[in-house]
Amino acid sequence: xxxxxxLYVSYDMMEVLHGISLKVEDxxxxxxxxxxxxxxxxxxxTIMGLVKPTSGQIIYNGEDITNVPAxxxxxxxxxxxxxxxxxxxxxxxxxxxxxxxxxxxxKARIQENIKMVYDIFPRLGERKNQLAGSMSGGEQQMLxxxxxxxxxxxxxxxxxxxxxLMPIMVNTCFDVIKxxxxxxxxxxxxxxxxxxALKVADRGYVLETGNIIISDTxxxxxxxxxxxxxxxxx
Length: 234
Known about the structure:
The structure is a single chain. This protein is of the alpha/beta class. 39% of the residues lie in helices and 26% in strands. It is built from 10 helices and 10 strands. It has a 6-stranded mixed sheet with strand order 6-7-8-3-9-10, sandwiched between helices. A hairpin with a 2-residue loop joins strand 1 and strand 2. Helix 3 (93-100) packs parallel to helix 6. The relative contact order is 0.19.
């Protein structure tokens, strides 16, 4: 489904990712964990097309998309939930969802997708006319995920879903991520909260200072002494 081959990324001549390679198979949930500043967000932005790599390849469904613009990646079935949620503060909940459906012309399908989002997040349905900027961080994160679902993506890239959220909302968001994956959506999550990320994942990677240092099943990683000591509080 998604394969990253020998990916290098630099900002202003400073190399941030040093030859990253990873795979996400069809309908798999993969978590990339690591400390702040490891390059996790750079990785996800590069996969989405928001950052241009220095070299390497991004393969999606067998096609090289390394030089494909971000908006075309979205139309190819890749959804994106950005770090910090990035909702449109001055628009209502429903207007934000409509922004996520920008490529759809079928009004009936748009309404079906809005209903789908409200079924997943009933709280958004209750607040559909509320300005997004007046909502809590957890509600905004629900909205960011809902917006990413509006184009019926086959794959979703999620950047630091737990950032700034209360523990109960972190649990809610990870529960939803797991359910979406069980419904057949392929998901790649980059996340500082290693405990939560590895509990829902099939496989995981540890990214440190721009390098993949560990890759294994999520179950094995949770038992790994190095991972436990550095990321799981063990």
